[in-house]
Each structure stands twice: as C-alpha cells, then as structure tokens.
Amino acid sequence: MDRILRTQLEKIRKFLYSQQCKSFLVFLFFLFVSASFWTLQTLNETLEVNVRLPLQLLNVPKTAVLTRELPEAVDVRLSDKGSVLVQYLYRKKLQPLMLDFANYDKGNVSGRVVIPHNDLIRLLQPQLIESSKVQSINPDTIDYYYTRGLPSRLPVKVKGIVKTTAQNYLSALHCYPDSVEVYAPASVMDTMKCAYTSEVVWEGLTETVTREVGLYPIKGVKYMTPKVKVKAQVDYYVEKTVEVAIVGMNFPADKVLRTFPSKAKVTFRVGAAHSERKWEDELVLMVTYDELLENSDRKYRLRLKNRPEGVSHIRISPAEVDYLIEHAATENDG
Fold first, then answer.
1. In 3-state terms, what secondary structure has residue 256?
2. Minimal CA–CA distance to 228: which of 158, 306, 136?
3. Are 43 and 86 in contact (CB under 8 A)?
C-alpha cells in the first residue's frame, strides 16, 4: 500500500513541475487579471438595473371597500455607475412604497384613484443614493378603485360554451350560489345586470359534471364570492312510440270526421328523464274542417299541431290517412 501511495505522489509531483502545468497556471493567472480588469471597467460605466418594490396602501377607512387594489409591486429601472447599482442588488435593501389613502380621498362615495407618477418618485427618492436616477416605473399607471356604498346582489350566469354529444342533451345548467354580492363604483354597477363566470368551454359531455369556476374579472369590481360551482346536468335521449287519436276541430254541428285508421303511431326522441310522461295526452293529431275543404286529395297528411318542449325527431305512422266527412245524425233527422 505504501509503495502505491508513493507512486501516486511521485506522479503528482512530476505533473506539478511539468511544463504543461506551468503553462496552465500562467493561463489562469492572466484569465484572472483580465476578468478583474473587465469587472472594474464595467463597474465604472453607467448601467441600468431593475429593482422590484412592494406597494402598500395605508389608512383605508372601515367605511371604504377597495374593489380593485393597488398592484402588489412596481418594477423600477435605475441608472448609475455599476459599482453603485451593485449595492441595490446585494446591500441596500429598498423599502416598500407607502401610499396614504387620506391623501387621495376627496370624500366621494366611490371612484377611481390614479397615483401620480411624481408621487412614486417622491416616495422613492429618499431611499436612493444621490447619483442614482429613475428611468422608468412599470406599470406606468398605478390606480385603485373603492366604494363606500352597500353591495348589490346579482344573479350568476355562465359565460362560454357547454355542449354534449349528439346522443345526449343539456337538461339544466345551474350555478351554486346562484347570486353573489358585488361591490363596485356606481358608474360600473349601473351597467351590470348579472355576474358572469369566467369563460368555459365544455364540449362533448356525456354525463353530469360539476366544476368550480371563477367569476369574470371586471376592472373596479369586487366579488364577495370569487368562485362558484357550475353544474351541467346531462341526460341521454331515448326513442318512444305512443298511439295518438286523430281528432277533428272546428267542424259544423252537422258534420263529423271519419279517418282510416282512427289513430296513428307517433315516434319521437325525448330525454330519458321525461320518457315516462303520458305523451299520448300531450301530443295532438288535429285535423281542421277548413283544411279538409281546401284539400283536393282523398288522403290527408298527418302532422302534429303542437310540439312539447324537449320532443324532437318526430315520425308519424301512417303518414297519411283516408278520411270521410259524414253528415251527423240530429233530432230533426228522426
């Protein structure tokens, strides 16, 4: 073991004294000198740097509700010598910019407050080194909305697309809760009839789904319930056939209608949830006297006189019937 260790140490010693190692060390030395010179030169030049400063709004009265708050922070672009800017990044920690609500309160019931650009620079300047200059503040418009009024309760409606497959249909669409309290300046509230959800795109649904959805953001509007549950109730179609009597309407008292056959089968598509209804009482195959007078054929083509909601793809069998208009027996005939 000692012999192996001595061998390895000897190899290391020879490498350190070799010309190759000396050249590498010289290269590292000049690389360090060059990097140091470049750094010193750069730090002496005028540069720009971005710093992020939090914003805080102080002394908001309890009677006021912010319907759109200040941005959490602003990005300030500063220019100065590189040696100064390094301090902002690693040594001199800038404090949040404190804005006083009272300075901008004009006693209005509600409204929008825009913070002047000069106010931000005035608050920032005492924290800066004297030689530093503010090049820009982003976002360039700093504002907030507030109201002292009571909230309004608005119904919630779904914004977007909710579709099922061809074999299914949307039987109901509900929001829970179905209304929310809303704070907003009077100028905005006067234009709102409801609170919409954020836009949804649900397509190809085959079963009932319930999902949490945020409310559509509007500048200056604050929802006390920021999210609602949207339930898309999906049902499937079934085909149903019922036998419906053919009836005559508006016939004179001495006339009576005879059709052959007297009933027809009506086949239609309806949601499964409504398939057990007594559709034979709701569907009407009606023939009016005036229609028959204008009919030049001995056959009459049947059609439904009403179509209940949810009924589609209607077929009638037979599609046409023979008919007679007979003289009705009366007491005078006896």
1. strand
2. 158
3. yes
Contacts of 321 (CB under 8 A, 6+ apart): 246, 259, 260, 261, 264, 299, 300, 302
Give 320's strand partners: 301
Residues 291-328 as b/e (b if ≥16 CB within 10 A, e otherwise) read: ebeeeeeeebebebeeeeebbeeeebeeeebebeeeee
Hey, how many other C-beta atoms are within 10 angstroms of the C-beta on 151? 17
Report the C-alpha gap between 55 and 122 in whole angstroms: 14
Q: In terms of DSSP bridges, do strands 133-138 and 73-81 run parallel, antiparallel, or are they unpaired?
A: antiparallel
What distance in Å separates the CA atoms of residue 139 and residue 71, rounded to the nearest whole number? 9
Q: Could you tell me which of 144, 137, 141, 148 has the C-alpha nearest to residue 108?
A: 148
Supply the Cα-derived Rg of the chain in whole angstroms: 42
Q: Are 255 and 328 in contact (CB under 8 A)?
A: yes
**For 73-122, how does the pLDDT look when each residue is reduced to its tens digit (9 = 90+)?**
999 888 877 677 777 776 667 889 999 999 988 888 888 899 998 898 88
